[in-house]
Amino acid sequence: MKALVTGGAGFIGSHTVDKMIDRGWDVTIIDNLSTGLRANINAGAKFIEMDIVSNDLPEVFVREKFDYVVHLAAQTAVPYSIEHPDTDCRVNLLGLVNVLEACRRTSVKRVVVASSAAVYGDADSLPIAEDGLLNPASFYGLTKLTGEKYLALYSQIHGVDYVALRYANVYGERQGEGGEGGVVSIFTRKIYQDQPVHIFGDGGQTRDFIYVGDVAEANCQALTAPQTAANRVYNISTQTQISVNDLVAILAEAAGKQVDKLYSPARAGDIYHSMLSNRAAVNDIYWKPQMPLAEGLQRTYYSLNK
Ligand SMILES: NC(=O)c1ccc[n+]([C@@H]2O[C@H](COP(=O)([O-])OP(=O)(O)OC[C@H]3O[C@@H](n4cnc5c(N)ncnc54)[C@H](O)[C@@H]3O)[C@@H](O)[C@H]2O)c1
After folding, report:
1. Do 176 and 35 touch, CB atoms closer than 8 A?
2. What tens digit of pLDDT does each residue of 165-191 get?
3. Is 140 a catalytic residue?
4. Which range marks the domain in which residue 45 is found?
5. What are φ and ψ of residue 214, in 5° steps?
6. pTM, whole model, 2 decimals?
C-alpha cells in the first residue's frame, strides 16, 4: 500500500507516518519544512522537500502512483491567518486544489484531509455535532471550511473519494507552539522551565483536548474505512471538555511541580466552551480515542526531557 502524507515532517503528520510505517505501508512525505522538522521524519519514509503549491507536485504523483493520500500540510496559525489572509488562502486552498488535481489525474483511491473545529461558530449546546452551525471566526477557519466544500465537489464532479476530519485541540509529543491548539505545548515548556503559565481570561474556558496518537490513528483508519464512510466530514475528538485551569493542575501534577498562573483579559474571538461529538467517527470509521488525558499530558511533558 503506497501512501503520501503531506506535512509529514510536522506534529500530526509525523505521528501519522509512524503509524503507517508500523503497519508496513510504503510511505512518502512531502513537506517544505516551514514549521516541520527534519528530526521528525521517520527513517523508513521517503522524503521529498517541496511546497504543496509547487507546479512540480503533479509529476511526483505520476511517478509514485500513490494509493492513498493524507493531506495535512497547511498554514495552521489562527492569528497569522488574520494578518496574512493571502498566504493562508494560497497554502490552504491553492495547495489543497493542487493536491486534489493530482489525486484525480492519478486515480488516488482516497484522500483524507485535515479540517478543524475552527469551522464551527459559538455553539448553543454541546457537544457540537458535524451538522452544527458553521460560522468560522478566522480566515483559517474559513479556508478549512471552503476546503471541505472543494472536497465535496471534487467527489461529486470527478469521483475523488475523501474523508475530511475536523480535529479538536490536538496535543502531544513534537507539537510546535505556533499552530492551532498549541496551548498544551506552551504550558508544558513553561512548566519544564519553572516559569509561570499565562492564561487569557479566568481559566474556566474549556476545550476538547485529544492526543496526537489518537488523531494519527483516525487518519489511518479513515483511509481504509468502508466506502459507506467516504465523502463525509467527521469530528475527531474525545467528546469531553476540560478547563484551562484543570489542564494546568494536571500538568503540574505530571511534572511534580508547583505552578504559578498569571491571568490577563480574554482574547477577542476566543470561544468559552468547546467540545465536539465523536459519535459519527466511532460508528462509521470504527475509531475511538484511547489515550487518557493525564497519561497523554505526562508523555508530552516527559518528551521534553529527551
Ligand atoms: N494541531 C491542532 O490542534 C490542529 C487542530 C485542527 C486541525 N489541524 C490541522 O492539522 C494539520 C497538521 O497540523 P499540525 O498541528 O501537525 O501542524 P504542523 O505545523 O506541525 O504541521 C504542518 C506541516 O506542513 C508543512 N507545510 C506547511 N506549509 C506547507 C507547504 N506550503 N508545502 C509543504 N508543506 C507545508 C509544515 O512544514 C509542517 O511540517 C493542519 O492541516 C492543521 O490545520 C491541527
Report:
1. yes
2. 999 999 999 998 876 668 999 999 999
3. yes
4. 2-170+210-237
5. -70, -35
6. 0.98
